[in-house]
Amino acid sequence: MKGVYMFFADGFEETEALATADVMRRGGIDVKKVSITGSLGVSSSHGVHVLADMTFGEFKNSVVLEGTTPQDVMVFPGGLPGSDNLAACKELMDMMLKHYEEGGCVAAICAAPSVVLGLLPDLKGKKMTCYDGFEPALIEKGVEYTKEGVVTDGNIITGRGAGHAVSFGLAIVAYLKGQEAADQVAHSIML
C-alpha cells in the first residue's frame, strides 16, 4: 500500500488523531485521513465531528496496493469504541495484515496497539506500548510491553495515550524523514 494513511472510525480519540496528523503534516508528510464510516464525517469519542479527506470506498479506489515499502504507513488512532470499530472492519484489517507482511509500517496509539495491531502475526519479542489495561493481550502474544510514552520497534510505532500524541506524531516523522526533521518540527512547536 503506497502512501501514508490514518484511519478514522466513530469513537476515535480526537487528540490522538488530530495532533498526530498535524505533527506529520508539519513534518512534510502527506497523511491522508480515511473515514471507514461510509461518509466523510466521523464522530470522536467526545463528540467532536471531523471531516476526513476520503471515504474508505474512495481510498480503495485510489490506493496503490503494489510495491509497499517501509516508507508506507498505516496509522490507527485509539479511543473507544473507535479502536474496536477499526478492528471490526475486516477488509481494513486484511489490508493491514498484507501491508505489514510486505514490510509496510504500522503505527497505533492508546487502545489501538492492542485492539488493532494485536491482530498482527509474529509479535513475539516486539517492544510496544499501549493504554494502561490493554497490555495483557499484547503480553499474551509475546510482546515486550513497556510503559514508555512512544516506542518504535522496526516497522511498528506505538504510543501510550493522548498525552503522548505529539511525541507519537514526531516518532512517525523521525521514522519517515529522520530525527533532524522531527527535531525541527518539535522546535517549531516550542518543544
Automatic annotation (TrEMBL):
InterPro entries: Class_I_gatase-like, DJ-1, DJ-1/PfpI, Prot/Nucl_acid_deglycase. One of its GO terms (cellular component) is cytoplasm. Residues 4-174 form the DJ-1/PfpI domain. Pfam families: DJ-1_PfpI. Transmembrane segments: none annotated. NCBIfam families: not_thiJ. This is DJ-1/PfpI family protein. It comes from Candidatus Cryptobacteroides excrementipullorum.
